[in-house]
Specification:
The chain is mainly alpha-helical and 217 residues long. The protein is built from 10 helices and 5 strands; from the N terminus they run H-E-H-H-E-E-E-H-H-H-H-H-H-H-E. A hairpin with a 3-residue loop joins strand 2 and strand 3.
Length: 217
Amino acid sequence: MGTVSSRIYNAIKEQIIDGRYAPGARITEQNIAAEFSTSRTPVREAMRQLVADGFALFKPNSGTVVRQWTHDQMREIFDLRVFIESEIAGHAAVRISIADIEALAKLQDEIEVNGTDLNTENTSRVGRLNRDFHRVIAHASKNERMVSMLANAIEVPIVQQTFRRYTAGQLARSFGHHRELIDAFRAHDSAWAKSVMACHIHSAKQTLLGGNYHVQH
């Protein structure tokens, strides 16, 4: 994609992930073109890419709409994450550098700067930093094939919005999992890292799928 369409694509994707475009909401070329002060051509390219990457769907009678996920699809995505991401954490524990461990510690400090504040602004901020935290681990694993398999699953918008479902206690537990992962990486203990990551994702899965949300049942 060209520069303009890439910028539009990234901006709309972030808005979908942050929940500013709700599942099922229409994304119109006219509105996006007006928002970005551009012609419809780069908007059309960006919207095609959003559909190709699974963030939106094209429906003949509705145009482009934000994708909705069924309960079963979301369960499958989390189960996939448990399998792949725990393996990635195990690989990372063996291969991670001191610089990456310190980067994780710094990210976690930033994640916790507002404690367990559950307002939308903070949970969106935590969600973005959480993505960065998991990406550092993925990069540290040096396992390109598994990271590629994981990429789409961790960017599913509803996965990123899990923090909006958390209670203060559940958010604190998530923070604790991250801190324990960092300890496992410092110890270069693969089995420990794998078990903590599996627990971390199972916990997020139950938080999201245990209640009502923007998923189709």
